Amino acid sequence: MSFEVSHLSFSYGKREVLHDVSFSLPNGSLGAVLGPNGSGKTTLFRCILGLCSPSSGNVCANGHDVAGLSVRRRAKEMAYIPQAHAIVFDYEVVDVVLMACGTDLGMLRSPLRQHEERAMAALERVGIADLAHRSMRQLSGGQQQLVLVARAIAQDARSIVMDEPTSALDFGNTVRVLEQVRALVDEGRSILLSTHQPEQAYLYADRVIALSDGRVISVGSPADVVTSRGVSDLYGMDVLVSPLFDDRARACVPASIVMPSKLTSRKQDSRVSGEGED
Ligand SMILES: Nc1ncnc2c1ncn2[C@@H]1O[C@H](COP(=O)(O)OP(=O)(O)OP(=O)(O)O)[C@@H](O)[C@H]1O
């Protein structure tokens, strides 16, 4: 297994925000964590990365107990793309990507030509090699996000954890990034990402983990989790999930918009509404 989270609980002070969370993600697969704001996705990722210490339970990454790994070893196992954040330092794009090579370098050692080539290859892969010598602070939020994806690629870790990697991206860049993510998975890496878009999880993920108020309420294939019942229960509202293109995609639509006077999806037994199918 790439990630194996077992009975994980975590508290900020006396407030427990993750409660007995368990799930696993097989090698070479893409896991999407869905959950409302404040449900604990970032905290869960920080525990997986070893940045927060759980009060109970444990996390294994690629067969290693994360709590027992050195920082350098953790970086070889897992790369991390945090949620969009303000860029404080005025680094060039290529320097941000080169930071991924830190695990190969000793203290105060400069990157070698091979590291620069690796950084440029990663930028090319996400289609922004032309931005290599621009300042990070002069990029749009979406471009900055692509740089962070390139940095994770350059780190060459076996697994990548991405906290809402497409939250700042327009439709085109969202698709470009998720196609890159899918390609990385198809090459054998494992990726765990969070998203607020159940439709995106359905399209790209192999496994979906639904987190509500710090608890896993369902985990399984996208077809089993991204349903009218599943999405409605997760977000506490009536949502109709309709298959599109022979169920290759699913559309999530608030029931209040499309059928305000009818029985709501939360009261329906059907897992996927057939209405609205293309
Ligand atoms: N540093 C902190 N100290 C105390 N409580 C925190 C801290 N960070 C997060 N929390 C609380 O922990 C809970 C989970 O927060 P977390 O950021 O993990 O949720 P999330 O699912 O990632 O949210 P979002 O989708 O809004 O990013 C929330 O109730 C939040 O208020």
Task: Count up the domains.
Answer: 2
Hetero compounds:
adenosine-5'-triphosphate
Parts with pLDDT < 50 across at least 5 consecutive residues: 273-278
Architecture per CATH nomenclature, i.e. the level-2 architecture of the largest domain:
3-Layer(aba) Sandwich
Pfam families: ABC_tran
Protein name: ABC transporter
Domain ABC transporter: 3-238
Family: Belongs to the ABC transporter superfamily.
Description:
The protein has helices spanning 41-48, 71-77, 93-98, 113-125, 141-155, 171-186, 198-204, 222-225, 228-235, 255-258, and strands at residues 3-12, 15-25, 30-34, 56-61, 64-65, 78-81, 159-163, 190-194, 207-212, 215-220, 239-244, 249-254. The chain has 278 residues and is α/β, with parallel strands linked by helices. The protein folds into two domains: 3-226, Rossmann fold (3-Layer(aba) Sandwich); 228-278, no CATH class. It has a six-stranded mixed sheet, sandwiched between helices. A four-stranded antiparallel sheet has the order 2-1-4-5, covered by helices on one side. The chain is globular and about 65 Å long. The two termini are 37 Å apart. The model is unreliable at 273-278 (pLDDT under 50). The structure holds adenosine-5'-triphosphate. Adenosine-5'-triphosphate is lined by residues 12, 17, 35, 37-43.
Key features of this structure:
278 residues; alpha/beta; Rossmann fold; 2 domains; six-stranded mixed sheet; four-stranded antiparallel sheet; 12 strands; globular; disordered C terminus; binds adenosine-5'-triphosphate; ATP-binding; ABC transporter; P-loop_NTPase; ATP hydrolysis activity; Metal_Ion_Import_ABC
